[in-house]
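pinning this so it doesn't scroll away 📌
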Amino acid sequence: MMPAQETQETSNCDMARMFDLGQCISTALSGALVFMRRTFKLERKTGDGIESGGWSQFLQEKIKAPTVTGTACIITSMMAAGESRHSEYVRMGKRLIIEHAREDGGWSKPSLKRYYSLTLVTCLALRALLDADQPSSSVSIQDGVRWLLDAQNPDGGWGNLAQDQKSDVTSTAYALRVLTRTVAGHPDLETGIERGHKWLVDTQNADCSWGRAPGDPGSLPYVSHAVEGLLACGVDAASLAPVRDWVLANIPEGAQFIDHYVVELPDGTTERLIWTHLTDERSLIALLRLGADITSPVLERLVGRILAHQVDGRYWRVDTVPRAAPSWAMVESILALRLYLDRLEHQGSVIALSRAVAELQETVAAHAERIARLEARVAPSFKVRLMGWLGLQGDE
């Protein structure tokens, strides 16, 4: 077998394996979508009779009421998994989020709703509303944008609370990803985005990584969040090639870890907020956003590990809470897999077209060679016959 044929067959096997992986992703997303529909809960309330509902933060909980965090995560997940924006689940989930906004325009978790709005919960709520086609000019989104801009710290970043002087990468990146999706409706929107962008750039470590906060050693989830924040601000992915190299060199084996935010309450007590980072999902998102080759074995391994964490084709297991079905694990896993699947479908079409063109070029080249050989044989005999017909014996 010729080397070119061997290369072609190897390439065909690689593409066939990736398309099989794509089919596994589609199956996983379909199963997750069915599970999310089944875990929807109507909200118990009295009033105008218009129903709202959503999801609790942990989907297996049958008694607890739906929350903004759970509902926001699942709306975004459902959109990525293929749910119609016009479905009743989405409509009622949007209504729940809008109804649970605080007077200051932000959103919070149930235990803190009477005290503070929280940056990350507000960003989740706004992202879900935007994903579900809530107009960015609507009151709920404009009020949320206003809260985010007012919550920005003097240094340009965002912390977990408004003006808390504790800017961190995750909160800042989430805020930028939401703000850049809204239309100008606040006089400080553009300035706020520019300041947040500058904060992310200034807090990058010398090795091209980011830690949780300025000066912290690099960690992959924070790098991934920072990448999405910068890309949302219009940074060219090609300029972040050194960041991609850092990610490739620092992917841990399926690590999952918890961030703790401590909130001081007016009565002097504190409450600890937990944010779990899923490194496989974050690694895959970062690499795809930064233009990594879809055929890379690294990406294939990450997809395989994420698929392996799905339980019975329904939800994603998290090592930190192994018996739960967290809504935030659903959204991270589904977004990562959807991004890979979209890239695979796009690149698959490009590869198929490239192969068709290459095969056509090979066919044309083969015909050209055959024509040249025929011309070489036919031309001399034709010349002899023509000269004989003219009564010539050749050149003198």
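📌 and the second one:
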Amino acid sequence: MKINEENWQKLFNIISQYLSENENPDIPVIQYRKATELLEILNLEIPTQKQDEEVVFETVKNYLKYSQRTGHPQFNNQLFAGFNVPAFIGEMISHLSNTSMATYEISPVATLMERELVIKMNKLTGFNTDEGIMCTGGSNANMLAIHCARSKDDPSVYYEGNKKDYVIFVSESAHYSFEKAVNLMGMGLNCIVQIKNDDDGKILPNDLEEKIIKAKEAGKTPLMIASTFGTTVMGAFDPVIEIDKIAKKYDIWHHIDGAWGGSALLSDRFDHLTKGVENADSYTWDAHKLMGTGVITSFFLSKHKGILKQANSTKGGEKYIFHKYENTDFDTGTNSLQCGRKVDSLKLWLNWQYLGDQGYKEYVDKLKDNADYFVEKIKNYPDRFKLIHNPEFLNVCFQIIPKDSNQDINQFNYDKRFELVREGMFQTNFSKTPDAIFFRHIFANNMTEKKHIDQLVERLLNIQ
């Protein structure tokens, strides 16, 4: 397929039309089809013969037509959304250059950009080191936290494997990635100890210390405490100052999973939630979730200089890729679990370069303003809406109260949420506790304005 002016124009026209449609209130967030129906429409069988190049453009059109429009202002379904042109340009150029992140030699600009982003983000956490790496998501970053904590506790694990009966302490509301991580690392799910939450979804420090003491009395080795900045459901921020005192008292690695709430550090409006972050040992930060850079833009950060190389470097690569030369200190592959690693730094770099610190503060503040506006709107209708919690971040969990008091409120909310999904005009999520099923509306979308919130509330009020 040729790269010529005609094909570029075709592609530009498709992209331009798609983006303009996102601003049209009559265009749905998704043209919903059941999976079996969509398979018939798309005909995804791989052909045996070479096709005319026009088939590529038709497939792109259909892909965009039936996919979720995450840049649509009424997409508030996931912990990522929105659209930013500099990040979009960065994604395209990264693929155009098609380099890997293993060494400075193969990716000189991107490795330097990643290093500077790590330094910048570590300054915001208060770590003040250049220790960090971009990875394939928050789940991978959380696993790296356990990996580094274990390496620091017992460097011989590198050769001899697990010799201690380790325990990882996580919130009841912690992300499930910790369970996957300990399974993959051969530590077993039984090493996870869940800590009770208060009514707002935050770790109870007293319960944490009691369970640490209990684990030690049982002859186990407390390895890591995982706090959370922005739990998945409620958006809760754990009390890290109190947790860190406990971690220091018992010499336990303290990790903060800020995959969702990490970007709260960009705005002083959240200082009361993030205070004490500088005392932790490591930090997960997904920039794609709140900085509008597109999936994936994830970081693992640490205050412990050299811990990534200690945990991840091997001698195998020295024969053909990790050479001793003038730029060795800028190679990243020895710090990473991966060899081939996609360039994700350029899109964040361009977006941050364009917005600056002040622009990103305003970016995050706008999302908070939208969340607060939505909360106040639904509070105006106490006969129709019930807040599940007191939102302090960008998650708003609520129920619609059915007009018929005989209807089961949980089943009603479950059914109506999927009714909205199939309708396609508004995309929101849902969650549940042992007692309730409720809407979970996420404010991560920089394209959402207050007029769109008004439209959503009007639609919710008309649900029968």
